[in-house]
What does this fold into?
Amino acid sequence: MTNILDEDLTYVVREENKELGDSLNIYLASPLMKGKSIDIIVYYETNQKQTATVWMSAENTIGKNYPLMYT
It folds into this structure.
């Protein structure tokens, strides 16, 4: 897992709920100041049985700028 500058981030995957899936906790190297934002890139894999993640194309989102994934 990296930020937008390709710097590695520390993370932990915890098994929270068998029905809902695991919890992903991402730890930043320094505190994020109020009003600031950070872009994080998450690389992941899934399997054929996965049904909880939905992708929307940019055209189907409110801003129409970026695709959206939600669970």
Q: What stands out?
A: The beta strands are 2-3, 10-17, 21-27, 40-41, 54-56, 68-70.
